[in-house]
Amino acid sequence: MNAKNKLPLFDFVSQGKHLSVPSGTCLSLPLAQCSLDDLFSTYGDQDAIICGIIPFDPKSPSTLIHSTDYSFTPHQKTVSVPEPDLDFILATEDDNQINRASALSFRQAVEEALTEISSGDYQKIVLSWKKTLDLATAPENIAAFDHLVFDRLYRNNPHADVFRIPLSGHETWIGASPEVLVDLNSGSFTTHPLAGSIAAHQAKDLQEAQKILLHSPKDLFEHSLVVEHILKQLELFDGIEISRPSGPEVMSTDSMWHLGTPIRAQVPPGISSLDLAASLHPTPAVCGAPQALAQHRISQLESYPRGYYSGIVGWADSQGNGRWSLVLRCLQRVSSKVNVFAGAGIVSGSDPAKELAETQAKMQTVLAALKDSVPAAKS
Which residue of 88, 138, 201, 243 pairs with 374 in a disulfide if CB–CB is 3.0 to 4.6 A? Predict the structure, then answer.
């Protein structure tokens, strides 16, 4: 790709607006040290923004960018070459020995977690696994691949927060998050936690999905843990006025039906979007309850370190406004290897086979974009 088509340091499309950050100062520090006041005092310029990606483990270093070189514009396709000219192929299929072993490991972890839940060790744990695919293409086409997957994800998921951030010359994270953790604009705060899900094919329409999810004690309990955590953490901030939610509703994404509860509040000056994100993350939607024990067991039960998967991605300005979403429905591309992640909340009553099927349905968001943007090799 020529210089004109060089990838930005950060792309984030939300509510039809595309935040593009071509350049900036890259920072690496844990979430606990990500005070906006300190960052802007250190790096200056009140017209700058802080953006980037924060890992699942808040104690691990984040990748953040301080930049005055950014723009918010109506989203348009970023790929600059016709799609038929891109001859990407997947060198491995979804269902290979490595991925079957990974799926089996997930089921075994769910079984072990259910034993611990029945013993009263904890109430909920979110377990995940990853599917690994190899991309067969010339190295000079990798940037075009990132472009195209990003565009396909937005096309297929126009209501999601679609992101792309390269961490190095070899690693990029791309995804279409369905879940907003923090949206703060001039003191008006919104979060929209999702927990309790069924695959899209399990209900033919919204009414049928409502009959299933709104009458499922298991899913309602799983969802309530997330809402209770968020409300409890928000109450720790002085001066926040919370609009108490009446109860969950059912919403859809491209591949799932979810229980979701919009939570709104008025936030006084001095509390930033990053402050709120640091307080809420990781919620039981991606971790479990109690949080510390669930997070510890995740590190033992999962067969890989999560890194940025189920972390948060977004931006904040010097006034504290910003938007941060969960790193879900995502892929990690490392050179020509693509890792696709998905997880499920495990509570009493969960079934390992059904939880595996749920994760496979969630993976379809990314797999559909990959396969759509990976035509068969030209003859």
Answer: 88
